[in-house]
Amino acid sequence: MQDILKIIQERHSVRAPFNPERPITRQDLRQILEAGRWAPTAHNMQNFEIIVVDDKKVLEEIGNIKSTVSDIFIQENYQQLSFSEEELLHKKVGILGTMFPLSWRTPGVKPIAEEGRSRSFPVCPTLLIVLYDPSKRAPASEGDFLGIISLGCMMENLWLEANSLHIDFHIVSSLGSGPVEKEVKRVLAVPENLKIAFTVRLGYVAAEPQRTLRVRRDIKDFSHHNRFGNKIID
Ligand SMILES: Cc1cc2nc3c(=O)[nH]c(=O)nc-3n(C[C@H](O)[C@H](O)[C@H](O)COP(=O)(O)O)c2cc1C
Prior knowledge:
Elements: H1 4-10, H2 26-37, E1 48-53, H3 56-63, E2 67-68, H4 71-79, E3 81-82, H5 85-91, E4 95-96, E5 118-119, E6 126-132, H6 145-164, E7 168-172, H7 178-187, E8 195-203, H8 219-222
Parallel strand pairs: 3-4
Antiparallel strand pairs: 1-6, 2-5, 6-8, 7-8
Helix pairs in contact: 2-6
Bound molecules: flavin mononucleotide.
Flavin mononucleotide binds next to strand 7.
């Protein structure tokens, strides 16, 4: 049994390709879903459904669906990127711009032919497609705000459990909107009333990935004592 804080601190995103020949065992999958099952949800609505995709043909079909990076992504992405590890260490929030092709991290720059604007995600043996029903909201929760927080709680449970089993985990948001979502829903025969909340790539990295710098604000940067602005003295 690992210490829970250690599991939380070591949980991380793995964006590299996974070994397509190393599937997640049934037992591990069950354990990950069990962790999701016990997530707290507003009003105990349990407002999610999860499709486990491990059929190679279906994975390929989903993998072939191309999404396009929008101008709004490029604009908003640019605003929170850092362009060196020093800058990221100083800012303590956001991610490194070098993760993206030049034209995706620079507003106004036209993509060079090979990078284009289309994106697909790296291979993996298992995908979890997490769905929710926006009409099943917790009482009086405007914009289903509480339901969406609940999905986040569920996501974290899946993630911590997977990482504690040494299974790599990558959230992919790009399948959850526009024509891409429609196409994924068609491939998986998802009922009309359900929306894709997020997708998870699960697996084991194919090759040792490059180290990625992970930063966080210090506790004193976001905590306040009794009233906003009063610093907690360490
Ligand atoms: C709601 C949500 C959506 C995310 N969407 C993506 C995504 O589409 N692609 C991606 O590579 N990472 C995605 N991430 C991962 C975050 O970028 C990542 O958690 C953050 O940069 C901190 O890095 P860490 O997970 O390694 O600690 C998402 C995370 C959350 C919570």
